[in-house]
Design brief:
121 residues, mainly beta, 4-stranded antiparallel beta sheet, 0% helix
Length: 121
């Protein structure tokens, strides 16, 4: 089985920073894409940022220049550094990884349970 566990969320004032982490564990052969999504109450889940195994990144326009995604492939971990946070960044943040597990031998998407980020004005 593969599990993703996020950490690092919390309450922060506008203009502050947080760093999210997401670590994958289990019978993992390989991890391709890693990414972060977020979902605010009453809204659809939206893409925040992704990073490929080669290090190529993409960002939502709303977070460009403020957020930075990175990965440590040796630790099966993805990070999201969030700076200059705004109240509209308030959401539950989920990590996503495309993982080939020993039991499946094919790549599938796995989601974490989410971590809450709340930005006060």
């Amino acid at each position: 089985q593969v599990q993703l566990v996020e950490s690092g969320g919390g309450l922060v004032q506008a203009g502050g920073s947080l760093r999210l982490s997401c670590a994958a564990s289990g019978s993992i052969l390989s991890i391709n894409l890693m990414g972060w999504y977020r979902q605010a109450p009453g809204m659809q889940r939206e893409l925040v940022a992704t990073i490929t195994r080669g290090g190529s990144t993409t960002y939502a326009d709303s977070v460009k220049g403020r957020f930075a995604i990175s990965r440590d492939s040796a630790k099966n971990t993805v990070y999201l550094q969030m700076n200059s946070l705004k109240p509209e960044d308030t959401a539950r943040y989920y990590c996503l990884m495309t993982i080939a597990a020993v039991t499946t031998l094919s790549f599938n998407d796995y989601w974490g349970q989410g971590t809450q980020v709340t930005v006060s004005s």
